[in-house]
Amino acid sequence: MIKAHQQLIHDGLWNNNAALVQLLGLCPLLAVTGTLINGLGLGIATTFVLVGSNTTVSLIRHHIPKEIRIPVFVMLIASFVTNVQLIMNAFTYELYLILGIFIPLIVTNCAIIGRAEAFASKNPVVPSMIDGLAQGLGFTLVLMLLGGLREFVGQGTIFDGAHLLLGEWAKDLTLRFYLTDQKFLFAILPPGAFIGLAILVAIKNKIDDIKS
After folding, report:
1. Domain residues for 11?
2. So where does this one cross the membrane (predicted)?
3. From CA 97, how far away is CA 63, in angstroms rounded?
């Protein structure tokens, strides 16, 4: 049992990473990762929805008619996304405004509906919860890596805007590596996101080749 859970974690973080292997959820991944904190904020929201939807689908899987399972899954996911929106509105309103439409669009994230259909609807609660957590953390790590890379190249900082997620005390967490009069827009805008993601995928593939 422990080995099975470890395999789920390893798959979510590496072998079957939603962003680097399945290439799912790329729209928000490429759109909001202008900074590390933006990526972290979206990653936490996505992880919350993944864990909640996987757990709920597993709990009620025997009571959902197969003919309507997908609409039911979408409804459950939408309810968790609504909770995330309300929480972010209450506690991280400025970050919520920055992430904008990509918070409600979590409902359409193929990685979430995919895990509900492919795993949670066929497995018990604990493995489904672990699978959702692992997949969410794997997605979050890619969001953070890509956001950190683009932020560093684009404006010479890391953790800029940390106070938007963690509170006013986090303003001191910003690390500035170089000063620039203008941001390097190529890195911050979508073209930089595509190149950054390609670099991360290439690094992962190279590591896998070395291991094999």
Report:
1. 2-211
2. 20-51, 72-91, 97-116, 128-149, 184-203
3. 38
Q: Which residues of 4-19 are buried (b: 16+ CB within 10 A; e: fewer)?
A: eeeebbebbbbebbbb
Smallest Cα–Cα separation from 50: which of 140, 184, 123, 124? 140
**Residue-wise DSSP of 141-185:** HHHHHHHHHHHHHHHSEESTTTHHHH-GGGGGG-EE----SS--H
Contact assessment for residue 136 and residue 17, using Cβ atoms and an 8 Å cutoff? no
How many secondary structure helices (H) and strands (E) does the chain include? 10, 2
- What is the total count of domains within the chain? 1
**How confident is the model over 18-56, as pLDDT tens digits?**
999 998 888 888 888 999 999 999 999 999 999 999 999
For 140-150, what is each residue's pLDDT tens digit? 999 999 999 99
Residue closest to 71 by CA, chosen among 79, 28, 127, 48? 79
Above pLDDT 70, what percent of the chain? 100
- Residue whose structure tokens are 């303003």: 171
